[in-house]
Amino acid sequence: xxxxxxxxxxxxxxxxxxxxxxxxxxxxxxxxxxxxxxGLGGTGARAAARAVRRLLGADAVGLADLAGATTWAGxxxxxxxxxLVDAALRRExxxxxxxxxxxxxxxxxxxxxxxxxxxxxxxxxxxxxxxxVADALERAGLEASAAQAAQAELRALRAEISPHFTYNALTVxxxxxxxxxxxxxxxxxxxxDFNRYSLAGHGEYTTVSEEFHAIETYxxxxxxxxxxxxxxxxxVAPEVLAVAxxxxxxxxxxxxxxxxxxxPRGKGGLVQVRGEAEGSDCVITVEDDxxxxxxxxxxxxxxxxxxxxSIGLANVDRRLRDVYGAWHGLVxxxxxxxxxxxxxxxxxxxPGVVP
Length: 355
Known about the structure:
Layout: H1 22-35, H2 45-56, E1 60-64, E2 70-73, H3 81-88, E3 93-95, E4 100-107, E5 110-118, H4 126-159, H5 163-179, H6 181-199, E6 205-207, H7 208-226, E7 230-236, E8 244-246, H8 250-262, E9 269-278, E10 281-288, H9 295-302, H10 311-324, E11 331-334, E12 340-347
Parallel strand pairs: 7-9
Antiparallel strand pairs: 1-2, 1-5, 3-4, 4-5, 6-8, 9-10, 10-12, 11-12
């Protein structure tokens, strides 16, 4: 009669790696990238260190920035580990028993920080994890650069607001101070309101209501400057007033209609602005019956290859596509002598777009 083998089976080693659960490993990599969105000194660095520690099964894991400030998951090892971090700023360094390994983290050949692993790892490849951390830091840097570029574009858009318009508006206000002080006072308030919205600091998103208010203020000032040469129609449906959209999207389109459509036309013209709901979309059109332009020229302006001083349409088009996707850029309908119609189509509700 055979006797069952009573020996305990060999314990399966802890391997929190792709060989055991690829999906969990990839999820951990994504979490590390998200946690390091603000870099090694950000609020998510501790969570990233904990995730790395779980992946490696190490006693402790530290993430050090270039200043040497280290965020630990687990108990920091005894001894002068900071000297090891300093050494790892130059090359991979190993020391002590139990082992202490420090690996430099490089982004585009530039040193970004140090990964420190204390104790024996029970799973995973330390260098591969270090590469993941470096990739996460690279992505964070790219996103930060993109955000800075977007802010620079918005500053450029603000700077493009016509100095000629500002000069003319102030000249008209000045001429009315004595002849029609009430009208001058009203225009001064409009001018202050226009500058508050267009030039002052503002969040990333606003509402259709706020944008239409800015449009009406701008057009009131332009009508004071151009007189009967500028006729205006502004209509907006109540159901779209609360729709969120990127800040300073509509005002540049209206300014373009006045400056490049109506003003060059000797007898002036009409600018119409409409906002309405179409199904789940908010559709805003800015139309003028001015001089129009060659469609090829309009395409160049949208592509950002138009003449200097025409960044407005390209800026708005790019920001809309960045926020809502490739199908939500500007649509420009124009021809020489036939006026210009610009259409903005955006979702009534879009996750993450909150004023």
